[in-house]
Amino acid sequence: MTRLGILLMTYGSPGDDLHDLADYLAAVRGGRPAPDELVTEFRRRYEVIGGSPLIPITRAQAAAVEAMLRSRGEDATVTVGMRFSEPSVAAGLAALADAGAEEVVGIVMSPQYSAMLMSGYQRALDAAAEALGDRAPSVRLAPAWYRNPHFVAAVAGRIREGLARLPDDAPVLLTAHSLPRRVADAEPDYLDQLRTTAELVAAAAGLGDERWHFCWQSAGHEPGEWMKPDFADLVPELRAAGHTAVLVAPIQFLADHLEILYDVDIGAREQAEAVGMRFARIESLNVMPEFIEALVDVSAAVPVG
Known about the structure:
The structure is a single chain. By secondary structure, the protein is an alpha/beta fold. It has twelve helices and eight strands. Strands 2-1-3-4 form a four-stranded parallel β-sheet, with helices on both faces. A four-stranded parallel β-sheet has the order 6-5-7-8, with helices on both faces. It starts with a strand and ends with a helix.
């Protein structure tokens, strides 16, 4: 039996003591150093949330995927690779090679795929394989997987759980990470994937058309126009329409990290409460069994060799 390797890839995060924060932000910005005031602001945000748990959660997701595959008789090893921090994509692929993996599936931990925004994962994977030379396993990158029924069901299940704590008419805001307008205009297929995800999730959760709204969150610090409507744009409108509570359901983020624990739990909550609305968000997918099933599906659907 061919030994399979799976590499879960995501952005990464600075170290717990934030000593590498400036280097991390520069890496995210394509090598451009972040202004001192931006480093200071992000340091404050990470300190407020007690540091990002993204890497430990991604490791736990990898362990859960490996356990599920092995329970089904698959000879599989699963690990992680970060695009902008350690453990890197190269370190992850080397670990899989050391474990004897002959074929590796790389999964970007975003169900939707944009060539402009995410091709760096493919480049990192290719460079890691080239560096290994004859030791390199065969590698393939999984395509977009936002239609996976287990992923859709997992988010829908979290929405039903969240709504059970709120008034019967509470609207649901299905959020995605905001983009500069110039990037969005160049990636219409990516926008379609995000909106389709929202539609699939809303239908699976049993939300009528009037009950949910697609919007953006976590607009960046670069100049220029960012996508609308933002969460902050919709909340006052919902309050004016008579709603007293709102549920936020990210459809792109798969684990707790800065954009969830700060941008949503602190920033969005403050915006909702400022206009007199009760605020809640869905529990992140993290290692939810239905979500782990989705990752297993994705790994099995990618031909390698």
